Amino acid sequence: MAAADVGDDQFGEDPSINRLEERLAALLGKEAAMWVPTGTMANQVILRTLTRPGDDVIVAGGAHVALSETGAGSANAGVGFTQLPAPAGFFTADEFRTAVKPIGHIVLPPTTLVSVENTHNASGGRIVPLGVMAEVAETAAAMGVSSYMDGARLWNAAVATGYDPATLAAPFDMVWVAFSKGLGAPGGAIVAGPADTVGEARRYRRMQGGAMRQVGIFAAAADYALSHHLDDLALDHANARQIAEILADSGRIDLDPSIVETNIVYFDLVEGAPSARAVVDGAADSGVLALASGPRTIRVVTHRDVTSEQCRQAAATLVEVIDQ
Ligand SMILES: *Cc1c(COP(=O)(O)O)cnc(C)c1O
Fold first, then answer.
1. H helices, E strands: number in the chain
2. Confidence class of residue 127 from pLDDT cuts 50, 70 and 90?
3. Separation of 272 CA from ligand 1 center, angstroms?
4. Which of 16, 54, 165, 284 shows a CA-CA span of 20 to 30 A to 216?
5. Residue 246, Cα to own-chain centre: how many angstroms?
6. Residue whose CA is at the smallest distance from ligand 1 atom 5
7. Considering the entire predicted model, what is its pTM?
């Protein structure tokens, strides 16, 4: 990062960013790519580019773009969201077709965009099957609805399935990927799609304050992470599965380890067990950090800074706190 060539990316003059954009356009199989500082901005810029105020956007239940961006989609793009139930991380093309509100309807808000989050965070990092994505995107195109993939965790899906990122992104008009999740870079995301659409998106990036200078330092970190950290995601996945198997042995935890496909484990505390808050606080006292994502639901995420042995210990600590 210290040695990165930098320049003014607002003028397209940061050589490190330009190289990263070219690398990612090729890697994702799209014509063009644009760097943005955060995944949230990637979602927001795509919403602005592919919708108009008043439009309806179809997403999986609990999608980050609908639920975890403090209302930004409504504030910035003026869109509403239809969240389709997605207990296993996805909705089908039939469910999508039924939910689409036709353009030109006398009362309904027109559905102009569908977003597929892969992997899907809220269902536990579940992988959306390639066939499902292809059918949803094809159905959307046939109905005049644009499509994009929220690929904050696309690298996890690629490593877990063995499909390359371009194959997974191919069904969609646009896609974005993050460098600061499993890959471990300090920041940055890339939005990719057709050249003219990415050109329009540049205006919305600037509108949201995301056109920056000297961001080549982030490009350098992203470039390094892609070249050196990608394969390590398989370790995160194995560690998450190991944690899930240890947790599932506790009679006070409701969890099916076979649904842990990537690096996220959600589990429920059965009646009689302490609350999620109490468990998270108790575990924190022993140096294990977890998230209470509901009154009786806890999320743990594995990452490249923790070893298999530490994950084993963390799971044992959680069980100890829950069973005591
Ligand atoms: C983290 C995440 C985002 C937001 O990315 P930030 O860089 O934190 O703004 C969006 N979508 C999904 C699925 C995520 O996991």
1. 13, 11
2. very high
3. 34
4. 165
5. 26
6. 39
7. 0.97
